[in-house]
Amino acid sequence: MSDPAVFAYGFAATAFLAFAAHLALGWRGGVRASVLVFAMLASAAWSSAGALFASTGGAGWWATQAVFDAVRVGAWLLFLTILLQGTAFGMKLAPALLVLALGAWWFYPDPLHDTPRAVFGVLVGLAVAGLVLAEQVFRRTLEHSRWAIKPLCLGLGAGFVFDLYLFADALLFGRVDSGVWAARGFAHALVIPLIALATARNREWTLNIGLSRGVVFHSTAVLACGIYLLAVAGAGYYVRYFGGSWGKTLQVGFIFAALVVLGWLFSSGALRSKLRVFINKNFFSYRYDYREEWLRFTDLLAHRDPGLSHEQRSIQALANLVESTGGALWLRAEGGYSQAARWNMPRVESVESADGAFAVFLAKTRWVIDLHEGAGAETRVPEWLQSLPGAWLVVPVTAQEEMLGFAVLATPRAKIEVNWEVRDLLKTAARQVGSFLSQVRASEALLEARKFESFNKMSAFVVHDLKNLVAQLSLLLKNAQRHRHNARFQDDMFATVEHVEQRMSKLLVQLSTGSRGEEKPRPIRLALLVERVVASKQAARAGIAVHGADSEIAALGYEQRFERVVGHLVQNAIDATQPAGEVRVSVGAEGANAVLEVADSGCGMSEAFVRERLFRPFQTTKGNGMGIGVYEVAQYAKEMGGRIEVHSRPGEGTRFKLMFPLERSGVMAA
Predict the structure, then answer these.
(1) Which of 61, 191, 285, 628 has its CA at 20 to 30 Å from residue 410's CA atom?
(2) Predicted confidence (pLDDT) at residue 370 exceeds the cutoff of 80
(3) Is the pTM of this model over 0.70?
(4) Residue 220: which of 203, 202, 196, 236 has the closest Cα?
């Protein structure tokens, strides 16, 4: 025997064994399923014995493959009989079929000696019996159910036809053709995909097996490629045989050209689309594998490609469902429906009115319109759309019963019948696209609203600071009438004006740029910070007491903001305290925390106000206050990993205690 026989039977053994294992894993009981698994195992054993005989030439392996071949044929005949006459009749007939098969294959032709022609006649009879049973199973199946049994009858019928050819040839010439016998294993392995397809379609066989469309697609592509290469090899042989002195040169050129054509065919999107449409139409009851299509659809929508907008991804997701080569999306704006995005389609400036007949028709019916079929008068398709090059389908895009727009898909790579299944899938996908685009719009609106909210919050802080600065200037002007000739007062006045000018300049930068003016936090000496704050408040209140100002105590923070929030607390203490009262600021350390306290002997706050309203914005006990200062203090303390404690009683005063993680290293702020 030759190497091709070893390869052919080895391939068949691997294929039958793998499929038998797959069937066994999905076995859920039942006679049909058991016989089918048994037939596959017998086929695997027959192929294995044939491969061993082809590689060794031993007579024992020939006899072994003959026995397994007999069991294999008997199992397939039994399976067809059960399908045709029922399980009870088939089981009664099973012993007779197996005995008949074993009896026939007992006189299996001997490759080393002459074999009587009557033996080949019996083997031809078995092949004919298999063909008759396969034909009867298909003919007696109800017409609407034939699609489920057709692959099985076609596959087994093809196997029996091959056997009929092999043994009919042997009957005529008195011997088995070794070349045809070598191909027998490969030929029988090729019917496995058809049997798998029939098994997936007939769940009543109690086998839990699913057949992926991708597997069928790639298997068909590989089979077609194999047939193509066989044809090329045969043609190349004849080119070389009849080409004379040019034969070898022509053969090499012919094979190279054929391989280039094969590469072009494999890279052709149109050919892949046509093959996919052909398989979906002829091998499956539904055109789409909905799980696979939906996963691909949602993955494309969720994929973030910086080169594609959300609208372009939506067009691609819809187009891929129907093998379309491009499309465009019209979304509703103030002037009507205008082109928001396009993919492999020309730019269109036309705007469809939201109150126009076409838009109203789409919003009312939600129809998928096929422009190639010729839109009826009731669809009111506008002229610009009818004249759009390559336009094929119009798909309304909706979200929560509202039409956001419509998509126009381009002509597909392969001709597709737009039936109810295609229309329903496109409608469902378009609703998902509408929800996706609505969510994108809502996210963008929310982001914009948050930006405005952040700006408004920052503006409130700025206005609060401006109010405090204006109060300082007002107090300065009031005292200037009495102390204008006092040199010390003049020095304080210039210092205060300089401080106000610096603070207002920083506030203007903060308001115009939307930033806080500081890039990252750094260690801040609290004693120096308190010193600056108290100095800035001297015009409003002299004699603010400072206690325990250890110059080495530091905390991490933003210097300007830190100074501002401490200034808020000191200003609040000044506002709440009578001239004869006391305002004091202290700096210290408690364990791993730096502590800054601002206390006063002023009017104080109720426990309910502290608990329910103090740290909320725009809540205040002062008649001219804004209720922003303490809120900003609390926000800053939380942001920097610190905390704030408040102790207050009406008529006794208030004590604010700020605690931040103690900073012991790093470059200190000046």
Answers:
(1) 285
(2) yes
(3) no
(4) 196
Token digits of residue 288: 């789409």
List CB contacts of 90: < 8 A, sequence separation 6 or more: 31, 35, 78, 81, 82
Residues 217-268 have pLDDT tens digits of 666 666 676 676 667 666 766 666 666 666 666 666 766 777 777 777 666 6
Q: What token pair was written down for 291?
A: 């799980």
280-327: per-residue pLDDT in tens? 655 555 566 777 788 888 888 888 777 788 889 899 999 988 888 899
Strand partners for 643: 659
Runs of H (alpha helix) within 243-268? 247-266
Alpha helices in 86-207 (DSSP H): 87-106, 117-140, 146-173, 178-189, 192-201
Q: Which letter does DSSP use for residue 371 in this model? A: G
Burial of 626 (0-12, 13-18, 19+ CB in 10 A): middle
For residue 512 the two structure tokens come to 């115009």
Task: Determine the Cα–Cα distance for residues 648 and 544; give it in Å rounded to an integer.
Answer: 19
Cβ neighbours around 618 below 10 Å, total:
11
What does DSSP assign to residue 2?
-
* Secondary structure class of 655 (helix, strand, coil): strand
Query: Are the beta carbons of 199 and 205 closer than 8 angstroms?
Result: yes
Measured CA to CA in angstroms, residue 248 lies from 115, 234, 236, 237, 256 at distances of 41, 14, 9, 9, 12
Query: What gap in Å lies between CA 109 and CA 550, rounded to an integer?
Result: 110
Cβ–Cβ < 8 Å for 55, 6? yes
